[in-house]
Specification:
By secondary structure, the chain is α+β, with helices and mostly antiparallel strands. The chain has a five-stranded antiparallel β-sheet with strand order 1-5-2-4-3, sandwiched between helices. It has helices at residues 12-24, 52-57, 62-65, 92-101, 108-119, 124-135, 150-158, 165-174, 189-197; strands at residues 2-9, 32-37, 77-81, 85-91, 139-146. Helix content is 42%, strand content 17%. It has nine helices and five strands. It has one domain (2-197).
Length: 204
């Protein structure tokens, strides 16, 4: 039986370190996914960002996001998620979201990420929190893993400076948030910088 284990990080560097540690522990890149808000352009490319629908339509999409022998981080690509903005993404979650958006109307990709998480066993409540966390500048690492390796993966993900999901959800809700909305606007660099300094700030 396969389970999905996820962790949210405020900083991309922590998420990337977790990904490298997972691979060092023998977790295949194909079972790991990283979706990171790229508003501060920590991942740079030489072309303008594309929407998920554009990527799927031009033949890139899922295959280009899965990563090759050099590891998951070598397969990072830029997609734009309505309500979040540009993200650096690779792995099964990103590929599933891109595939779901192919030929769909703009905006479907946001629900695609929430849907992909819930279909893999993540609770709807947590899936919305993870999507909102990425919207506010965070990075999400999700791993599909067999039952007897769940503990190993969980230990690796939480050995890095991760977000306490329950605490962060309470902070968001105390300021009026209820769930992720792909129709919402992407935050500016300034707003995300403020959110990273103090997640309690009302940013609905």
């Amino acid at each position: 039986m396969t389970r999905t284990v996820s962790a949210l990080y405020d900083r991309y560097d922590e998420a990337a370190a977790a990904v490298r540690a997972l691979e060092d522990a023998g977790i295949p890149a194909a079972d790991i996914s990283l979706v990171s808000n790229n508003v501060d352009r920590h991942y740079a490319v030489g072309v303008d960002k594309e929407t998920a629908g554009d990527i799927a339509a031009d033949g890139a999409g899922a295959g280009s996001l899965i990563g090759g022998g050099a590891g998951l981080l070598a397969g990072l690509g830029i997609i734009a998620i309505p309500g979040i903005g540009p993200v650096a993404a690779a792995g099964w979650l990103a590929a599933t979201a891109v595939g779901a958006a192919a030929g769909a109307i703009a905006g479907a990709i946001g629900g695609g990420i929430v849907g992909a998480l819930t279909r893999s066993g993540v609770s709807e409540e947590d899936a919305h929190l993870y999507a909102e966390g990425v919207r506010r500048g965070g990075s999400l690492v999700s791993v599909r893993v067999v039952e007897d390796r769940v503990g190993v993966v969980d230990d690796i993900l939480h050995a890095h400076d991760h977000v306490d999901v329950e605490e962060r959800r309470d902070m968001f809700r105390d300021n009026g948030w209820r769930q992720f909305d792909e129709r919402g606007r992407a935050f500016s660099e300034e707003e995300i910088a403020r959110a990273r300094q103090d997640p309690r700030l009302p940013m609905i």
